[in-house]
Design a protein that fits this description.
280 residues, alpha/beta, Rossmann fold, 2 domains, four-stranded parallel β-sheet, 10 helices, globular
Length: 280
């Protein structure tokens, strides 16, 4: 009996070891991808799914304007096969991109904004569903270049995600139908591409990344009163002090909307619900 139990334990240990080794191999076979911001991680994972392992340089809650990568993140860059940058002038990339490439000169760099017309100094291209479609196409092309064996898999996943973006576009147009006011006030001007795509007007409090002056705050208050604006939108990455002053002066409130949330589709739907509610 003892011999039989020992034999079972030996077999179990061997199977466990075999499964562990297989899991390690499967993990090693994944394409390692590094991206700058969380929304890009969502795009890559939606196309690559179980074929990719994605690391984000600017984590949730951090600001791409000020974030500095940690040694553990640089290690992930050194092991990556592909880096997906926004490519539209995000400050983190302007400061760090050359250094990151220096860490791993073998990795392929994909400019996800290739083919997108950048508006002035506004890097927030991903917040337009039309731009997101272009970015997903660029990411899919990059994955195919470094992993041609799974080309059909990536194309199938890409097409599925593009269909979801089309549905998002319909959702936004339906929610905006019949909205009387088309203006919304934000602290940080992140939503210009969304506004342009859907005929809205973003009124920013902050300009050129600087805290608003007393005069700019007074002007914002007057503009909000003139257009009957009762909501000031802020992002989790920005200060809210000036926005709180303006909200108090207009008898309104502050609402947080996140331009850098990783769950792109659900987040955009939430943002649209909040914007349309404020503009009614």
């Amino acid at each position: 009996m003892v011999t039989f139990v020992s034999a079972l334990l030996t077999v179990a240990l061997m199977l466990g070891f075999s499964c562990a080794k297989k899991g390690e191999v499967d993990q090693e076979q994944k394409t390692r991808v590094v991206v700058t911001i969380p929304p890009l991680a969502d795009f890559v994972e939606s196309v690559g799914k179980d074929k990719v392992e994605v690391a984000v340089m600017v984590p949730p809650g951090a600001s791409p304007h000020t974030y500095e990568p940690k040694p553990s993140q640089l290690k992930k860059v050194s092991r990556a096969k592909m880096y997906v940058k926004v490519g539209s002038g995000v400050e983190f990339e302007l400061i760090w991109m050359e250094k990151l490439i220096g860490v791993n000169k073998e990795m392929m760099v994909v400019n996800s904004s290739e083919g997108i017309e950048v508006m002035g100094n506004d890097p927030h291209v991903w917040l337009s569903p039309a731009n997101a479609r272009i970015m997903v196409e660029n990411i899919c092309g990059g994955l195919i270049k470094i992993d041609q064996r799974n080309e059909e898999y990536y194309i199938q996943n890409k097409n599925q995600y593009l269909d979801e973006l089309i549905q998002l576009d319909r959702f936004i147009k339906e929610r905006l139908e019949g909205i009387r006011g088309k203006k919304f006030m934000v602290y940080h001007p992140s939503w210009g591409y969304l506004a342009k795509e859907y005929g809205l007007e973003q009124i920013p409090i902050e300009h050129a990344g600087k805290e608003p002056t007393a005069k700019e705050i007074r002007d914002a208050v007057e503009m909000a009163k003139e257009d009957d604006i009762k909501v000031v939108f802020v992002s989790p990455q920005s200060t809210t002090k000036s926005a709180e002053v303006i909200a108090k002066e207009i008898g309104g409130e502050i609402v947080s909307i996140d331009p850098l949330a990783q769950s792109y589709m659900p987040n955009m739907r939430t943002v649209i619900e909040q914007l349309t509610q404020a503009m009614r």
